[in-house]
Amino acid sequence: MNHKPFFLLFAILMVPLFVGNSFAQIQSGGFGDSPFERDFGDVKFLDAYFGTLNQKIEVEAGDSNVPFTVVFANVGTQDITGIKGQLSLPFGFSASDGPGSIIRADSDSNSLAGENFHLTFFVNIDKNVNIQQYPGTVKVDYSRLRESGVRTAFEDFSFKVTGDSVINVKALDPFLTSLRTNNVIIEISNDGTAPLSSVDIVASNTQTERASTTASTTNVENVVILESNWDVGNIDPKSARHLTATVYVPEGLKGDTLRIPLSISYYNAHGDQHVISKIVDFYIKGLIDLTIFNVDVIELSGTQMIIGEIINEGNEDGLFGFVSVEPRGDSNIKSNTQFIDEIEVDAPVPFNIPIEFDGEPKYGEHDITITVRYKDGIRDELFVTKDTTIFVNEPTNNGESGPDSTMIIIPIAIAIGVGIYIMRRRKKSANEASD
Questions:
Q1: Looking at residue 302, what is its pLDDT?
Q2: Where are the transmembrane segments (predicted)?
Q3: Which of 58, 175, 191, 218 is most buried when burial is the number of CB atoms within 10 A of its CB?
């Protein structure tokens, strides 16, 4: 039996099946189940975010009455009007009118063919909402011009609760010292819940910038700042970064407040660049620069005395000064303290502390530490120390005949003390008069 005609007929009958499957994706009116399926309508979804048309904003859990904008394109061939929208969001998001209300929005204008339009809704965010992506659906009702009836379009989309970034700046040590080069550390913190990216900081209105401006907003042009630009990088939520600067303050700014303006550029969680201004304040202290010198031992009325002088080479008086002597090593000199009051600028202040021994007197060399304790203009207590070696002689024999040295030394000591007191008061009065 010849099966050839049978197989030929079978092949002819099977051809339409294969051809039909090959082109089954293309059907009249569209692309069927193709992954490139397109629905030809008048409205096309473009974007959805928290904020208004011209500005996206960062939001976090617990925010209320927040604008939520959905942007569309009119891709049809005719203008549309009467645009209204309803928004459907997951659990945790509700209308600003209260739970259970429909989230509605109306467009206040027509949309020309080929142009974009938007709907802005107002939403409350529950305090338990997480920072992440969420799905949503929007329904748009509209009418074509010169056509009766209402058309409806539905669009699914995703949106993000970004968190909210909060920038604060402060100086870790808000005090500067005049006549000195100060190493300054400024803290830039992100106290919010959204990250900051590509943070750049510029100290504005510095001396270099001041040359090209006609007015100054702060007194920062009167100091020298060696660094004025910092590339900080990224700052995560609830974290901080530090930048350092070297600042020289001249003498004339003592007692003033220095205000350094900072221009901070960064990208927020939407990827939008923002530039904000912050000011870091510093208080400028006077300089107290003490030196202890001319330390020696003298005998006064049979008593050995440690004497010396203190000079202040700064531009501010030291307050509530004390001088202390403490033994070092095997010295058995007792610790002792003398109150010297103010330590004025450029006026040596003498001190004299009697020597007392802990146990039997030991004569000869003694290692001691002299400490000057005082307070500055902001009442911080400061210390200056000097390690030195003194030589203690045996006291002279008071039984020898001759005039009583006490009757001579005491008036001299009183005269010297009165003279120093009068000189210091005159100088202080002259300084107050000049101020």
A1: 79
A2: 405-423
A3: 58
Is residue 51 situated within a structural domain? yes
Beta strands in 113-209 (DSSP E): 116-125, 133-144, 151-160, 167-171, 175-177, 180-190, 196-203
Q: Where among 227, 261, 285 does a domain terminate?
A: 285
pLDDT confidence of residue 188: 97
CATH number at residue 325: 2.60.40.10
C-alpha distances in angstroms, 273 versus 55, 131, 270, 276, 368?
11, 20, 9, 10, 63
Do 233 and 201 touch, CB atoms closer than 8 A? no
Residue 21 has pLDDT above 60, yes or no: no
Same domain, 394 and 363: yes
For residue 35, tell me if it sits in a domain. Answer: no
- Tell me the pLDDT tens digit for each residue of 82-105: 999 999 999 999 999 887 789 999
C-alpha distance from residue 368 to each of 169, 310, 336, 364, 416 (Å): 46, 17, 11, 13, 26
Domain shared by 203 and 298, yes or no = no
Structural domain contains residue 92: yes
Residue 144: partners with Cβ closer than 8 Å, 6 or more residues away = 42, 76, 78, 79, 80, 81, 151
State how far the Cα of 139 lies from the Cα of 270, in Å rounded to an integer: 25
Identify whether residues 118 and 212 lie together within a single domain. Answer: no
Q: In which region does residue 407 sit, left (phi positive, over 0), alpha (psi from -120 to 50) or beta (all else)?
A: alpha
Residues near 36 by beta carbon (within 8 Å), at least 6 away in sequence: none
Q: What is the pLDDT of residues 379-391, one digit of tens each?
A: 999 999 999 999 9
Q: Is the dihedral of CA 52, 88, 143, 65 positive or negative?
A: negative
The pTM (predicted TM-score) of the whole model is 0.71
* Length, in residues, of the chain: 435
Domain count, the chain: 3
3-state secondary structure of 13: helix
Is 191 part of any domain?
yes
Which structural domain range is residue 377 located in?
290-398
Same domain membership, residue 68 and residue 51:
yes
From CA 176, how far away is CA 282, in angstroms rounded?
7
What tens digit of pLDDT does each residue of 218-266 get? Answer: 678 889 999 889 999 999 999 999 999 999 999 889 999 999 999 999 9
| Model confidence at 217: pLDDT above 60 | no
DSSP 222: G
Which of 361, 390, 365, 360 shows the shortest CA–CA distance to 297? 390
pLDDT tens-place string over residues 298-340? 988 878 999 999 999 999 999 999 999 999 999 999 999 999 9
Q: Rounded to whole angstroms, how far apart are CA atoms 244 and 237?
A: 21
Q: Which of 354, 349, 391, 346 is nearest to 372 (CA)?
A: 349
* Residue 39 pLDDT greater than 80, yes or no: no
